[in-house]
């Protein structure tokens, strides 16, 4: 091989099975067209109630069809990226760039210091030159517990890092160390910025004499009259102070619960950034969001298996995945507002010359100014530089802004997961988390950052539509609620909404429903899931659409009207022993009263009553039983499917005796609401 011959550092391949996917998608589209024809041709000309219920169902089906098209477009072309880290080491050797790693935490009660320190130590233990690693922790809680834990971590790293390198430990998170208590150091009123380990110091070595990575602690200044902008503000402060201390050209950001599970993740990302032919065009490299506490059948559907294995790879083929807030490697210049230029080149010699000569104490004083709450006043931080402010999903809108400045992004999914985090272990945690995400996405869609408008002539149409598929999560709530409530009530009143079982028009309805769900089951199994896991996933999508999405829509409307303020809800990462035990047994955790549970329980009981009412008609009038089944077969099937999906809700309402059952107040309210709805529907 010639010395100057180009050898790529990564390869792009087509995801397997595109022809099968496209054929099934085309057949489903044909079925949808036939359903539309049926709705138009057999438009109800009966009473007023019949007409409006028919129109409502037709509009719901049109929305489902439109949303299905959005998601299908996203996945029409999907690719995977394969990095070659051995070529990286052969080509660049010791000339690898510096890496700044940002870890953010906000509440020591919801995000325990032991978990935070596990994450920090795992980041320090990467298989990468330690003198080129700098780890920054932003503690928006300003907690003495977190600070003490960081001091302990700085000391323990001298033993832990050599141990990881010697025995090639993976994952690199020393959870067992924090099972024993340690005495806190005598520290009072520490500064807001503290360099705990100065990687420039020749004495900063481990027990084997090897250099240690730089470790920096930050507690931002906060004042009531200045908005601190939550995680986005913390990230922007870290960008500024890291530029004075280490100024690495590549930044990795992780949530405090996302520890490193692959010691070579940095090298994987550098295979993308440092490829001589294509690397200069990429602004960030996104890794999957994986969890190490999932149950066998993923009781809350948190794995995102299909989304990350198929959907996001579809985005990658059309300009790049979105930034999901954690496990992402950024090019510093792209994150700080620089526009992509075709002649841009990754100057290694320049970027490696990032060392500063100031003493650590002087750097700390300088960085205090950069982290002050007044520094960003009358600047472009949060608007054109750094993470964008004003949205609960600052990551999504920031990634979109980077792409609209001309940069591309890459999704890397190595065989060994790059990062592991903590998934919600109660249903309410899950619903609240998705409410925040959904609300943020909808706010982005209704703002100037709407991908269809903001990305016009900046990013491909397919990528803009892919963003909209996530931005419009919340809009699914109305169509789903209509499909869950109205067919059930119409059964009780005797209003037919679907073709007879004996009619050939039943075929497109049956085919679309069966093929779509059968294919989704096949995808989940192919991605490593189970049949029960697929059932749980379908159940959680129903729960989220009827609660999280609904409340997110209402909250967004109130915000637009000026009745609500932006808030950032932290998902708790801790749970008591009983809750954890029930989670391991795959029992859905209810336990507390919540408006979301009122809705879930009411809908479940409503469909149960509708099913009982129909069964009564069939059994008590044997001569008309077959006629009822023929006329209302699809509606009855829909109710029975919903009843089956709600079996855990019925158990929690009527049979469970543990603390995770549905509270009595929710049970009473839901029964009253359901009975009232059934009574009103009959008249």
From TrEMBL:
Pfam families registered for this protein in UniProt: Cellulose_synt
Classification via InterPro entries: Cellulose_synth, Nucleotide-diphossugar_trans
Primary residence: Golgi
Residues involved in UDP-alpha-D-glucose binding: 111, 140
GO molecular function: cellulose synthase (UDP-forming) activity
One GO term of the biological process aspect: cell wall organization
Residue spans crossing the bilayer: 19-40, 52-70, 470-492, 590-612, 632-654
Catalytic center residues: 140, 395
Gene Ontology cellular component list: Golgi membrane
Keywords of this entry: Cell wall biogenesis/degradation, Glycosyltransferase, Golgi apparatus, Membrane, Transferase, Transmembrane, Transmembrane helix
Bilayer topology: Multi-pass membrane protein
Binding annotation for Mn(2+): 231, 255
Signal peptide: none
Compartments in which it is found: Golgi apparatus membrane
SUPFAM superfamilies: Nucleotide-diphospho-sugar transferases
Described function: Thought to be a Golgi-localized beta-glycan synthase that polymerize the backbones of noncellulosic polysaccharides (hemicelluloses) of plant cell wall.
Family designation: Belongs to the glycosyltransferase 2 family. Plant cellulose synthase-like E subfamily.
Protein's name in the database: Cellulose synthase-like protein E1
Species of origin: Gossypium barbadense
Lineage: Eukaryota, Viridiplantae, Streptophyta, Embryophyta, Tracheophyta
